[in-house]
Design goal:
Blueprint: H1 2-8, H2 12-32, H3 35-38, H4 43-50, H5 58-67, H6 69-83, H7 89-107, H8 111-139, H9 148-207
Helix pairs in contact: 1-9, 2-8, 2-9, 5-6, 6-7, 6-9, 7-9, 8-9
Membrane topology: Multi-pass membrane protein
Pfam families: MotA_ExbB
GO cellular component, one term: plasma membrane
Length: 208
């Protein structure tokens, strides 16, 4: 591996840095965007069942907020009703929307960086290719003819950087698209959960 890095020249170091960052982001997003941490399947039904007759205590709401992203959104609606018993439907929906925007921002964290790496890696590979071509042309100059060692090094720089850039860009783009799709699915789940919770919570405002 070290011999390959030496043959690729200095342009490969930015690509190595991009590969490390991309791998770290992919692992982090896989962990953060798991279903159990974002939208557990039975959480909404459990919240509705627990709050069927009365609103929960503040410590229960705090535990719900710490459960997952969906739990934090649902806890925001519960806190809004607990804080303001006569809250209007518009204000309750606004509370859910605000919590939803914060949740989307959290789920999309680092995705722009991953997309930037997917777009920048081919350009860095192109830079390495250009530098390799410059060394190839430089090896042809001089009165003594071509320099085989410099020619071979220029070819190595061009080819290795191109190949390494594609090895970074293609997986990064694939995971970027995959995580974007996951976030879109979760956003739909959060919207549907909020739509079910609004009429459920409005029952408590009409009772007081």
């Amino acid at each position: 591996m070290f011999s390959i890095i030496q043959a690729a020249g200095w342009p490969i170091w930015p690509l190595i840095l991009c590969s490390i960052v991309a791998l770290a982001l992919i692992i982090e997003r896989f962990s953060s965007l798991r279903t159990v941490r974002v939208a557990p399947p039975k959480l909404l039904d459990e919240v509705i069942a627990v709050t069927r007759s009365n609103l929960p205590a503040p410590d229960v709401v705090s535990k719900l907020a710490a459960n997952s992203v969906l739990g934090r959104v649902l806890a925001t609606g519960l806190r809004a009703v607990i804080t303001e018993p006569r809250i209007s439907e518009a204000n309750l929906r606004n509370a859910f929307e605000t919590a939803g925007r914060a949740a989307v921002h959290q789920m999309e964290r680092y995705l722009n960086t991953l997309g930037t790496i997917a777009a920048a890696a081919p350009l860095l590979g192109l830079l390495g290719t250009v530098i390799g071509m410059i060394e190839i042309f430089a090896s042809q100059g001089g009165a003594s003819g071509s320099d085989p060692q410099q020619l071979a090094h220029g070819i190595s720089v061009a080819l290795y950087n191109t190949a390494f850039a594609l090895m970074i860009a293609i997986p990064s783009l694939m995971f970027y698209r995959y995580f974007r799709g996951r976030v879109d699915e979760y956003v739909l789940d959060l919207e549907q959960a909020a739509e079910r919770m609004v009429p459920h919570l409005l029952r408590f405002t009409s009772q007081r």
